[in-house]
Write a structure and sequence with these properties.
The protein is globular. The mean pLDDT is 95. It has a 7-stranded antiparallel beta sheet. A 6-stranded antiparallel beta sheet has the order 8-13-12-11-10-9, with helices on both faces. The protein has helices spanning 17-24, 27-31, 111-135, 155-165, 232-244; strands spanning 3-13, 37-40, 47-52, 55-65, 69-74, 82-91, 97-107, 142-149, 177-180, 188-195, 199-204, 207-214, 217-224. By secondary structure, it is an alpha+beta fold. Helix content is 25%, strand content 41%. It folds into 2 domains: 3-135, START domain (Alpha-D-Glucose-1,6-Bisphosphate, Chain A, domain 4, 2-Layer Sandwich), CATH 3.30.530; 142-244, 2-Layer Sandwich (Alpha-D-Glucose-1,6-Bisphosphate, Chain A, domain 4), CATH 3.30.530.
């Protein structure tokens, strides 16, 4: 049995409509703040693709009005499930832009848990978009994804391991500073810019680094803006797997 849902959010961003459009309606723009590696054919009927950890999902571009509106929709699965996304861009005085996001569709039998995860995730994603447009305007991020099982540890213990390895005090709070030297990775100097029960995000001089934990698993979604990012994803995967081994 399917269940309809709709999540609608609006945020004012410190960027021009052109900058916001570039961030939401191009593959490199999405790579700089959203999940996974993204491709987008900029036309109605084009394909929007996202790959995370070797798993690729695709949607069809159902509306494409440059600088104003973008909408996509996945195919309807055999059980009736689908997801649709709509982004509406409106410029405001002072060089800011209002972005409205509508995420809707049909979810399956476990719809409540999935809906709750989506509802909790969107404010974080829009926060990351704001961080990108504020601190890394005009730059393109390299997305980094890594995942590792927690070895049967409860989620609070996984969070504690992550925080300790990054020289962060518990509880992890916004504004906390860190200097860490993760094994096999460049030294990390940054500030916590987001913290909730499932994830925390660090901003450094050349990246936005997110550490997510849930169901006994740790995930990382990073966006790196500095030079020398070749091999970064493999290096972070080795670090995370070693930490939770």
């Amino acid at each position: 049995m399917t269940h309809p849902f709709e999540i609608e959010l609006e945020t004012t961003l410190p960027a021009s409509p052109e900058q916001v459009w570039e961030a939401i309606a191009t593959g490199p723009g999405l790579d700089s703040w959203f999940m996974g590696r993204n491709e987008l054919d900029p036309r109605e009927g084009g394909t929007a693709g996202m790959e995370i950890g070797g798993h690729r999902t695709e949607a069809v571009v159902t509306a494409h009005e440059p600088g104003k509106r973008l909408a996509t929709r996945t195919a309807t699965a055999e059980d009736g499930r689908f997801m649709a996304f709509e982004y509406l861009v409106e410029g405001r005085d002072g060089g800011s832009t209002v972005l409205r996001v509508v995420h809707s569709g049909l979810l399956g039998d476990d719809w409540q848990d999935e809906y709750d995860a989506l509802r909790r995730g969107w404010p974080f994603h829009l926060h990351t978009l704001r961080e990108y447009l504020t601190h890394f305007p005009g730059r393109t991020g390299t997305p980094v994804f890594a995942a590792a099982p927690g070895g049967g540890r409860p989620d609070p213990e996984v969070r504690s391991l992550l925080a300790d390895a990054l020289s962060l005090p518990l509880p992890v709070t916004v504004g906390a500073r860190t200097h860490a030297e993760p094994a096999g990775l460049p030294a990390l100097d940054g500030e916590v810019v987001w913290a909730d029960d499932e994830r925390f995000e660090l901003r450094t001089a050349d990246g936005l680094l997110t550490f997510h934990h849930g169901a006994g698993t740790a995930l990382m979604f990073h966006h790196l803006f500095g030079p020398g990012t070749d091999g970064a994803e493999a290096a972070w995967q080795r670090w995370l797997a070693g930490l939770l081994a």
